[in-house]
């Protein structure tokens, strides 16, 4: 059997070097992982060390292990809920922290998983790792489930022998994101329900209720007030062309949705959002919190600044923020400090920029970024509640005006009724 020299790290991050006889490099990787080590470099004989596995090498090689071939052909874009991934991270981190080897930990999670999509993906990852790929490279083969942020942090954790700690941070990160999304949805749920219910009530009134009342007025054969006639004309239009109204609303909604999905439409929509006074602050602080948390987490795990900015740009949902982050990265490549290009931006709050500048000067940038994210997440929740408190009265007042108009238009003919019947 050939002799392989290896470099690996244990759960405590200590570098371990040695040699081992095996039939192939994949067998060395599997053996090291069974012993609880994270392979860094493996080479045959006394040659120069090379990485345990690289995506390019594995994708371009003519011969692959059966496990690798199987995982490549397997579906890599199954949708997995965020809370399932959070549970996966935390359980795997607990297993690794308890000294369980990565391969055995993945095998345990495969058996325990109740979500079909996550179970299938975990099986593929397990086969890839047993076939000689690192954990990060195995995750990277499922981009629809594991983001660039996730893969980058796992890769840094493997290199530093801190995979368990990194997985716990990822679990905390995803939990905070999920909690904030849940709070935003719960705050906006009531206004959305009110708007939908109001539109449905108005449609039913004009299409079915008012026409019956109008028939009664017509049987009186008396002159009706102008407000009532206007209401009758609207009701008759709804009664005859209700299908056209619903169709136009559906076409408008689908057209707007498709336009926003295009690059031009997304830019126009994101620019519009940043021009609405109250909404602008919410979006700006929401994106700033996401930027700070992602950037801080990556830097804390040893990811380089430029690589971290590339990942952060993908995480941000607003294209204006993405363009600014790309510009910031270009200036940093030319030697500028992080805070300098941030000051030129019109989208990042100046308070956050000043804190980042301080953290950069003191050498505590990751900690400052995480503190900024926590502060802005609280502010975003508070501002959304304030915005909702303004929307609710506006909806109530609008509905009151519409109902008032209907009531007056219906009662006016009664008040002006001629007892003589026009004789």
Per-chain topology:
Layout: E1 3-9, E2 15-21, H1 25-34, E3 38-44, H2 55-60, H3 66-73, H4 82-97, H5 102-112, H6 116-130, H7 135-140, H8 148-160, H9 163-220, H10 226-261, H11 263-273, H12 277-300, H13 305-315, H14 319-333, H15 339-343, H16 350-362, H17 365-415
Antiparallel strand pairs: 1-2, 1-3
Characterization of this structure:
The protein has 423 residues and is mostly helical. Among the domains are: 3-52; 71-174, Type II secretion system (T2SS), domain F (Receptor-associated Protein, Up-down Bundle). It has 17 helices and 3 strands. The chain has a 3-stranded antiparallel beta sheet with strand order 2-1-3. β1 (3-9) and β2 form a beta hairpin. α12 (277-300) packs antiparallel against α13 (305-315) and α13 packs antiparallel against α14 (319-333). The longest helix has 58 residues, at 163-220. It is elongated. The protein starts with a strand and ends in an 8-residue tail after the last helix.
């Amino acid at each position: 059997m050939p002799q392989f020299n290896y470099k690996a790290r244990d759960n405590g991050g200590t570098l371990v070097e040695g040699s081992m006889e095996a039939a192939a490099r994949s067998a060395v990787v599997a053996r090291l992982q069974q012993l609880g080590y994270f392979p860094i470099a493996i080479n045959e004989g006394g040659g120069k060390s090379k990485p345990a596995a690289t995506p390019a090498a594995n994708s371009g090689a003519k011969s692959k292990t059966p496990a690798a071939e199987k995982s490549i052909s397997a579906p890599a874009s199954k949708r997995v809920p965020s809370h399932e991934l959070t549970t996966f991270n935390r359980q795997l981190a607990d297993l690794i922290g308890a000294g369980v080897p990565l391969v055995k930990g993945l095998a345990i999670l495969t058996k325990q998983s109740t979500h079909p999509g996550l179970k299938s993906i975990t099986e593929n990852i397990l086969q890839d790792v047993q076939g000689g790929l690192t954990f990060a490279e195995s995750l990277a083969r499922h981009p629809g489930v594991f983001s660039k942020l996730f893969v980058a942090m796992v890769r840094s954790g493997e290199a530093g022998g801190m995979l368990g700690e990194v997985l716990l941070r990822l679990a905390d990160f995803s939990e905070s994101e999920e909690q904030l999304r849940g709070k935003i949805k719960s705050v906006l749920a009531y206004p959305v329900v009110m708007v939908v219910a109001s539109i449905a009530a108005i449609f039913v009134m004009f299409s079915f209720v008012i026409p019956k009342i109008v028939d009664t007025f017509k049987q009186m054969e008396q002159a009706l007030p102008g407000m009532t006639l206007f209401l009758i004309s609207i009701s008759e239009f709804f009664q005859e062309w209700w299908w056209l109204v619903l169709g136009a609303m559906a076409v408008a909604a689908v057209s707007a949705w498709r336009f926003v999905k295009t690059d031009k439409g997304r830019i126009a929509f994101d620019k519009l959002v940043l021009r609405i006074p109250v909404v602008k602050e919410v979006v700006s602080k929401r994106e700033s919190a996401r930027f700070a948390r992602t950037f801080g987490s990556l830097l804390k795990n040893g990811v380089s600044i430029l690589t971290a900015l590339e990942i952060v740009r993908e995480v941000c949902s607003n294209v204006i923020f993405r363009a600014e982050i790309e510009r910031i990265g270009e200036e940093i490549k030319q030697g500028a400090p992080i805070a300098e290009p941030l000051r030129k931006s019109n989208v990042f709050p100046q308070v956050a920029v000043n804190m980042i500048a301080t953290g950069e000067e003191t050498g505590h940038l990751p900690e400052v970024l995480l503190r900024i994210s926590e502060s802005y997440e609280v502010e975003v929740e508070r501002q959304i509640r304030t915005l909702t408190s303004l929307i609710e009265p506006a909806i109530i007042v609008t509905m009151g005006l519409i109902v008032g108009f209907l009531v007056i238009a219906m009662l006016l003919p009664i008040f002006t009724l001629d007892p003589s019947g026009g004789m």
